[in-house]
Amino acid sequence: MYTLCVAIVLDTSFLIALAKVGGLDLLKHLEPERLVPTGVIEELKVGRRKGAPEAQPILETLKQLRVQERKVQASSVDEAVISLAKAERAEMFTNDIPLRSRAQAQGVIAFGVEDFLFLLLCRGVLIQKEYQRLIGELWRRGQIGKDQMARYLDLQGA
Protein backbone atom coordinates (compact mmCIF):
# COMPACT_ATOMS: atom_id res chain seq x y z
CA MET A 1 0.00 0.00 0.00
CA TYR A 2 1.04 3.59 -0.60
CA THR A 3 1.84 5.11 2.80
CA LEU A 4 4.63 7.64 2.32
CA CYS A 5 2.55 10.73 3.06
CA VAL A 6 -0.18 11.82 5.45
CA ALA A 7 -2.93 12.20 2.85
CA ILE A 8 -3.64 11.90 -0.86
CA VAL A 9 -5.89 14.25 -2.83
CA LEU A 10 -7.70 12.80 -5.84
CA ASP A 11 -8.71 14.82 -8.90
CA THR A 12 -11.64 14.09 -11.19
CA SER A 13 -9.41 13.35 -14.20
CA PHE A 14 -7.47 10.70 -12.26
CA LEU A 15 -10.69 9.01 -11.15
CA ILE A 16 -12.15 9.06 -14.67
CA ALA A 17 -8.97 7.61 -16.18
CA LEU A 18 -9.03 4.74 -13.68
CA ALA A 19 -12.73 4.15 -14.31
CA LYS A 20 -12.25 4.03 -18.08
CA VAL A 21 -9.86 1.09 -17.73
CA GLY A 22 -11.78 -0.71 -15.00
CA GLY A 23 -9.26 0.17 -12.31
CA LEU A 24 -11.38 1.82 -9.62
CA ASP A 25 -10.89 -1.13 -7.29
CA LEU A 26 -7.16 -0.28 -7.23
CA LEU A 27 -7.94 2.86 -5.20
CA LYS A 28 -8.10 0.71 -2.08
CA HIS A 29 -4.29 0.52 -2.28
CA LEU A 30 -3.97 4.28 -1.75
CA GLU A 31 -3.58 5.01 1.92
CA PRO A 32 -3.51 6.49 4.50
CA GLU A 33 -6.18 9.18 4.03
CA ARG A 34 -7.86 9.76 0.65
CA LEU A 35 -9.36 13.21 0.14
CA VAL A 36 -11.38 14.99 -2.53
CA PRO A 37 -12.56 18.59 -2.57
CA THR A 38 -16.33 19.05 -2.78
CA GLY A 39 -15.86 20.36 -6.32
CA VAL A 40 -14.69 16.94 -7.51
CA ILE A 41 -17.86 15.35 -6.12
CA GLU A 42 -19.96 18.06 -7.78
CA GLU A 43 -18.23 17.49 -11.14
CA LEU A 44 -19.00 13.78 -10.86
CA LYS A 45 -22.66 14.47 -9.98
CA VAL A 46 -22.98 16.77 -13.00
CA GLY A 47 -21.38 14.05 -15.13
CA ARG A 48 -23.88 11.51 -13.80
CA ARG A 49 -26.80 13.81 -14.69
CA LYS A 50 -25.37 14.25 -18.19
CA GLY A 51 -25.04 10.49 -18.64
CA ALA A 52 -21.27 10.06 -18.22
CA PRO A 53 -20.91 6.30 -17.71
CA GLU A 54 -17.94 6.61 -15.32
CA ALA A 55 -19.56 9.03 -12.86
CA GLN A 56 -21.82 6.68 -10.89
CA PRO A 57 -19.22 3.91 -10.37
CA ILE A 58 -16.71 6.53 -9.21
CA LEU A 59 -19.17 8.04 -6.72
CA GLU A 60 -20.01 4.58 -5.39
CA THR A 61 -16.33 3.67 -5.05
CA LEU A 62 -15.53 6.90 -3.21
CA LYS A 63 -18.34 6.15 -0.77
CA GLN A 64 -17.30 2.50 -0.27
CA LEU A 65 -13.70 3.49 0.39
CA ARG A 66 -14.78 6.28 2.75
CA VAL A 67 -12.90 8.92 0.80
CA GLN A 68 -13.16 12.15 2.77
CA GLU A 69 -14.86 15.09 1.07
CA ARG A 70 -13.52 18.52 2.07
CA LYS A 71 -14.96 21.97 1.39
CA VAL A 72 -12.34 24.28 -0.08
CA GLN A 73 -12.73 27.93 -1.03
CA ALA A 74 -11.20 28.31 -4.49
CA SER A 75 -11.94 29.89 -7.85
CA SER A 76 -12.09 26.51 -9.64
CA VAL A 77 -12.08 22.80 -8.93
CA ASP A 78 -8.47 22.60 -10.12
CA GLU A 79 -7.45 25.29 -7.66
CA ALA A 80 -9.41 23.51 -4.92
CA VAL A 81 -7.48 20.30 -5.57
CA ILE A 82 -4.15 22.16 -5.32
CA SER A 83 -5.27 24.15 -2.26
CA LEU A 84 -6.42 21.03 -0.44
CA ALA A 85 -3.16 19.23 -1.21
CA LYS A 86 -1.18 22.21 0.08
CA ALA A 87 -3.32 22.64 3.21
CA GLU A 88 -3.08 18.95 4.09
CA ARG A 89 0.56 18.60 2.99
CA ALA A 90 -0.76 15.85 0.79
CA GLU A 91 0.31 14.37 -2.49
CA MET A 92 -2.02 14.78 -5.43
CA PHE A 93 -3.17 12.35 -8.11
CA THR A 94 -4.42 13.89 -11.36
CA ASN A 95 -4.42 12.90 -15.00
CA ASP A 96 -4.50 16.56 -16.05
CA ILE A 97 -0.93 17.36 -17.12
CA PRO A 98 -1.27 21.18 -16.94
CA LEU A 99 -2.81 20.85 -13.46
CA ARG A 100 0.01 18.54 -12.41
CA SER A 101 2.55 21.12 -13.63
CA ARG A 102 0.81 23.97 -11.78
CA ALA A 103 0.69 21.91 -8.60
CA GLN A 104 4.37 21.00 -8.85
CA ALA A 105 5.26 24.66 -9.44
CA GLN A 106 3.51 25.40 -6.11
CA GLY A 107 5.45 22.70 -4.28
CA VAL A 108 2.82 19.95 -4.36
CA ILE A 109 3.98 16.46 -5.24
CA ALA A 110 1.66 15.35 -8.04
CA PHE A 111 1.35 12.06 -9.88
CA GLY A 112 -0.63 10.73 -12.83
CA VAL A 113 -2.55 7.51 -13.28
CA GLU A 114 0.44 5.93 -15.02
CA ASP A 115 2.59 6.69 -11.95
CA PHE A 116 -0.03 5.10 -9.72
CA LEU A 117 -0.09 1.92 -11.82
CA PHE A 118 3.72 1.76 -11.85
CA LEU A 119 3.75 2.12 -8.06
CA LEU A 120 1.31 -0.79 -7.79
CA LEU A 121 3.50 -2.87 -10.11
CA CYS A 122 6.58 -2.11 -7.97
CA ARG A 123 4.67 -3.04 -4.81
CA GLY A 124 3.57 -6.36 -6.29
CA VAL A 125 -0.12 -5.40 -6.32
CA LEU A 126 -0.22 -5.65 -10.13
CA ILE A 127 1.47 -8.37 -12.14
CA GLN A 128 3.28 -7.35 -15.33
CA LYS A 129 0.58 -8.65 -17.66
CA GLU A 130 -2.15 -6.63 -15.90
CA TYR A 131 0.09 -3.56 -15.74
CA GLN A 132 0.75 -3.82 -19.49
CA ARG A 133 -2.97 -4.22 -20.19
CA LEU A 134 -3.89 -1.18 -18.09
CA ILE A 135 -1.18 1.05 -19.59
CA GLY A 136 -2.22 -0.02 -23.11
CA GLU A 137 -5.87 0.59 -22.31
CA LEU A 138 -5.08 4.07 -20.96
CA TRP A 139 -3.43 4.85 -24.29
CA ARG A 140 -6.27 3.34 -26.38
CA ARG A 141 -8.81 5.41 -24.46
CA GLY A 142 -6.82 8.63 -24.88
CA GLN A 143 -5.88 8.96 -21.22
CA ILE A 144 -2.11 8.96 -21.84
CA GLY A 145 -0.02 9.73 -24.91
CA LYS A 146 1.92 7.22 -26.98
CA ASP A 147 5.25 8.48 -25.57
CA GLN A 148 3.96 8.05 -22.01
CA MET A 149 2.77 4.56 -22.82
CA ALA A 150 6.15 3.59 -24.28
CA ARG A 151 8.04 5.12 -21.34
CA TYR A 152 5.95 3.32 -18.72
CA LEU A 153 6.11 0.01 -20.57
CA ASP A 154 9.91 0.40 -20.74
CA LEU A 155 10.06 1.14 -17.00
CA GLN A 156 8.62 -2.23 -16.09
CA GLY A 157 11.76 -3.94 -17.31
CA ALA A 158 14.17 -1.51 -15.60
TrEMBL record:
<dbReference type="Pfam" id="PF11848">
    <property type="entry name" value="DUF3368"/>
</dbReference>
<dbReference type="InterPro" id="IPR021799">
    <property type="entry name" value="PIN-like_prokaryotic"/>
</dbReference>
<protein>
    <submittedName>
        <fullName>Hypothetical conserved protein</fullName>
    </submittedName>
</protein>
<dbReference type="InterPro" id="IPR029060">
    <property type="entry name" value="PIN-like_dom_sf"/>
</dbReference>
